Amino acid sequence: MSELINNREYRQKLLKQLIMELHEGKSVEEVKERFAKLIEGVSPSEISAMENALIREGLPVSEVQRLCDVHAAVFKGSIEQIHMAEKAEDNPGHPVFTFKAENRALERLISKTIRPLLNDLKDNNNDENMQKLKEALDKLWEVDRHYLRKENLLFPFMEKYDIVAPPKVMWGVDDEIRADIKEAKRLVAENADISLVSEAVEKAVSRVEEMIFKEENILFPMVLETLDEDEWLKIAKESDSIGYCLYTPTKEWKPVRVNVEKKVQSEGEKPASEGYVKFESGILSFHEIEALLNTLPIDITFVDKDGIVKYFSMGKERIFPRTKAVIGRKVHNCHPPASVHVVEKIVEDLQSGKKEHEDFWIKKGDIYVLIRYFTVKDKNGEFMGILEVSQNIAPIQAIT
Fold first, then answer.
1. Domains and CATH numbers, the chain
2. Three-class SS of residue 207?
3. Which is deepest, 78, 127, 261, 390, by most CB within 10 Å?
4. What share of the chain is helix, strand, coil (3-state, %, to 5)?
5. How many C-beta neighbours within 10 Å does residue 9 have?
């Protein structure tokens, strides 16, 4: 572990040197090769963590922003995105699907309309072509809504996970692109010299293309390995209020859910919503069982043998927030992709019988949380599922 930390600190020191060299006037090409060697085998998340640490040390965001072009030059055509077996982002309506669909529309606008118009204007600088260019730039300005959704819906979740540097850097670049498009629109509106118009428009569309590349090869892989399904659902639901760019989602994205009641019935069990349940050690009504479980000073979550979240208790002071939307979901979809492998390892060890329970403990402010996972089996020893029990043990530790 110490070796890993030292390597990270060493890479961070070199990263800072590269940024300072860019500040002193070195070109992207001059530092590109050294940057590539520095981040070889490093995920986008670790790169962002290093940049974030540099900003916390006091390095201005504007200096870290100089790395954006180096990122693009190094990653182009080689960065490996992290894919899950079933990628939610490939489904229409998912925020990343929408962002990418907008990017494709922007690329078509640039390649099929704006650049051909620029070429025509060099030979036929007339009012008709200039009006067409003005209309095309008005369409290009819709990228503002693309950036607004990214900045106001996506970036806050990144900051929640302490990914601070990339949003600040990218927001700064977004604002520069907005300014470039405005300048191009101004020159076209004033019917300026065609050479000035051509230069300004080409600069604006090139910056848009660069940002498309940075989003799809750096930003999106980073957030896809960080945000969980519920967070993507919130982003999807709030996107309409901001609007879209050259593309409007035609479908609402709905994460896969299992109907737990139908699943129970198909397995030959009947839910006892009324009446009594007879146990070996007594009899309780449905309402008594529910009240009893919600009164326990612990949080309980049950995942059945198929990995489906089937139940959680609803105590007055939950340690971890839960919504009813988790019922019927696969347990690995309830965690950020970056930690899914930990969850899957726990499930595998308990289901296989390698372990009977697994314990973790974390500190959250004033509370000290003990999280325990137990194998649940029937009388015949058949695996039925996994019970997660979370408890704030700080008050227990304080007992004298």
1. 2-75 (no CATH), 88-238 (1.20.120.520), 297-397 (3.30.450.20)
2. helix
3. 390
4. 60, 10, 30
5. 12
